[in-house]
Design goal:
With 482 residues, the protein is an alpha/beta fold. It folds into four domains: 215 residues, Vaccinia Virus protein VP39 (Rossmann fold); 67 residues; 83 residues; 73 residues. It has 20 helices and 15 strands. The longest helix is centred in the middle third of the chain and has 18 residues. The relative contact order is 0.12.
Amino acid sequence: MSTSYDRTRYPSAIHIDTHPASVAALGALCGLTPRREAYRALEIGCGEGVNLIAMAISAPESEFFGFDLAASAIDIARATAARAGVANVRFEALDLTETGRALGAFDYIVAHGVYAWTPAPVRAALMRVVGETLAPQGLAMISYNVRPGCRIRQVLRDGLSLVTAGIDDPDEKLARARAFLEDRLTAWDSEDPYRLALRNEAQAQLAKPAEVLFHDELGDVYEPQLFRDVVAAARAQGLDYVCDAHGALLTEALFPGAPFEAARKWTGGDWLAYEQIADFTDLRRFRRSLFTPAGATIDRRFVRERLDGLYVDAELTRAAPTQSRAHAFRTAAGGEIEIDDADLAGLLDQLAADPTRARRLEADALSQDLAEGLTKLALGGAVGLRARPLQMTVAPGERPVASALARALTAQGEEKVPSLRGGTARLGDQGIRAFLLLLDGTRTREDIAAAMAERMGVSLADAAARTPSVLAHLARLGLLQA
């Protein structure tokens, strides 16, 4: 059965928040005990397999399986895994509505970008498959577009559907859609708040890659969900909601404050009711919801001991405080952290001094204040909290190693490759791509410089002088493992 994804490829990327190491840490904070090693993981709607292959590389003792309806995407996934030398991942072309228990049990399940983009029978099948295959204490992350925040996007999508109706050729359809969006930018002035919101949404859509615009805005199905309806669908399949991967929501669960209390008159103190109210308050557009088999004890309280054995990582630099705080740090994404806690600042200094090594946390060695401060930073996205360290470095060694997945995709001619920190990195320059392919751990920096000097027709001295800066560039892109 041919799909639109067989005719037009969808860009692949690593979604770090779907990684079992990230998901398990969230489960641990909520009182669950998910497997941290030697687990089985499933990705539903895996596309070309980039996200799953990255997981498999980072956990060689575990088993990974992905399926998708688009057979051409599965062929690409298999070829990429083989080129990258990843043996613990398997891909199949399957129809979600025709599978289930025969797949076996999985400790982790990911369904990213599927639920709100499929018709009701497929959504029901997705929940059924998760309910039938999720192991006890297992965790499933299901992402979906959320109402009411996606109402504005729906208006734009309705307009695009109208003006592109009857056009079958993808290139013609895309050209028509982009022309409509560009026209609307002039029609929607900034005086009216509703038109301004539509204008901002149109600008966001025009900034997307053409393939994403084609599948997301011009696809046949787009059904943003109410949080409560997704939870009800999960409960019908024997699943309980754990938390959302969005840090702000979980922060309010672990450290309830004024927002939770202010909503109590509408929620009666019920956490799920609060999350639904929060979606309306914040006009939330997207969720990454975690589910576990019904019957598990879910405890959304901060307990210091639950940090035990988790790992913290971060890319930080010291900064001058701008407020009346004693310590300040800047994140790699440009964010600012300003704190007074000297112990927390000391830990952040350690991370800043050696960002190549994640720190294993021992709960007994953490004060309550330090544990709370660190957890809040993790939920805010300033630092990473994992059940196992990620394989990424910003300080490459004498024999640098680039991600096997990035090398495999580069060898296949891709200019965009997945970053180990999530998302994608563009390698438009042929010299950069050639340099990346040399980073397999067998060559010293001198060997790499010599190979590049010969390839680029420059002196060995020039190539050697450029090698550190190119390595630093690739490290900043999140492409180096050692």
